[in-house]
Amino acid sequence: MKNIPPKHIGEIINSYLKDRNWTQRINGYNIFQSWEDFIPNKIALNAKPIKIQDNNLFIRVKNHVWANELKIRKGEIINLIEIKILGII
Fold first, then answer.
1. Is residue 3 one of the residues assigned to a domain?
2. If phi over 0 gives left and psi between -120 and 50 gives alpha, with beta otherwise, what is residue 35?
3. Is residue 1 in a domain?
4. Half-sphere exposure at residue 86, Cβ-oriented, CA atoms within 13 angstroms
5. Which residues partner with 30 through β-bridges?
6. What is the domain count for the chain?
7. Do the domain assignments include residue 15?
């Protein structure tokens, strides 16, 4: 029997998730915890992610003005989310 060196539990979990192509989905749910870290401060104060359903992110905003602001900045926000999920930073 070969002596296989022990692996860190994080390495085992990452390998498991990667083998099943779950990494991107798991990273997507991390958006809820790190929203304020990668979204511009003014937006983060006025808009919060509430759920992901059918690959759509639902965001609660303070009022209709912020709803319009997010529509205008949709491309920018999508890029920031993709960078966060794909880890391109």
1. no
2. alpha
3. no
4. 8
5. none
6. 1
7. yes
Global pTM exceeds 0.70: no
Burial class (CB in 10 A: 0-12, 13-18, 19+), 57: middle
Instruction: Please tell me whether residue 60 adopts helix, strand or coil conformation.
Output: strand
Domain residues for the domain of 25 are 9-86
pLDDT in tens, 24-35: 667 666 788 889
What does the pLDDT look like over 5-24, one tens digit per residue? 888 888 887 788 778 777 66
Instruction: Give the H/E segment covering residue 48.
Output: strand 47-53
For 75, the token pair is: 């491309």
For residues 59 and 49, is the Cβ–Cβ distance under 8 A?
yes
